[in-house]
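[09:14] KT: can someone run the structure on this one? pasting the chain below
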Amino acid sequence: MVRVRLPIHNPPAELRTAVGCMAVFGLVLAVAAGLLAWVRRGDPVMYLVAPALGLLAVLCFCAKPILGRYIRRHGGMVTARVEFGPDGFRQPLEDKTTLVLPWDDVRRFVFREGQPGGRVALAVSLVDDEAIRNLNPDCRHKSDDGFILSSALAWEEAEKALAAIERYRPGLGRWNSKDVRRGGFGVPNPVRRLVKRWSADQTRTLVRAEQSSAGRLFFLWAAWLAVIADFVAPAFYDIPPGIPLPVALATWVLLYLTRYRGDFGEFAVTADAITWRPKEGDPVRVRRTDLVRLTAEPSAKKATRHYVSVHAILRRGEDRQLAARVSPGAAKNVLRLVTP
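[09:31] RB: done, structure tokens below
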């Protein structure tokens, strides 16, 4: 029996819903803090409760970056300990029972490289529709490779899972970069890997697509400090009670309109290559030896935010687009890392 740590896949729609609910809850807390500061002005209890509510509201509004950082570090919001054994793929359930997907119900396990953070996606393809009854409901998200078990499996765990599959049911696992193709005489030739595994001695720098510029960071900090000061000031100064909430609402609307809505992913820059790894889709890799320069061109404007597209100019004259729409701050950092 081989045990594997499997970060459960979180669909983007569910993550957006969770972040939206946290934002609404934060708005309720912020309004409660403002009303408390207005109604109970001068009450010693207000000086303790109102700042606490305001701090909780700020944490709710920061749920998206906090949640994104946690998922980047751990691969998902929930990590399950699944097992590969002689009887099949064993999945623990919330009621402490174990659901077993027999090997005969599986057509193949597909491992796909190139996920953000150097992780591996794992999907399972079933022989028929009835076999889905033996699959955990949390893993029934459909993809081109089957049902997504995890979109951010650690390299070591992926290799352990593949070894277990080959041990109990040889040929059932498929790793996209380890497939082979046969020539005209049937001689197997290794398929060239589009994304190489980062070795321990190879340094790399990751740049997220939504990475903010210095000006954007200053704007965000100034906006949130203004909101906090807006609710705290009436407790110390004679400010009309009708001012704080409209000012805070105007600031929140401005922050919402200027949120990042470009392509999600990351650039991985090493001494050998530059790789764009989108959150969804295949990675694009350009070797340094083939690269003349990187360029950033204005992309589509959406609401009050500007985006840029990053292109690689190759030695043979080809203009290859790496990312279609990323933040100017991310593009500037990538160009700075690549340009000598």
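[09:33] KT: thanks! The longest helix spans residues 12-39.
[09:34] RB: yep, looked fine to me
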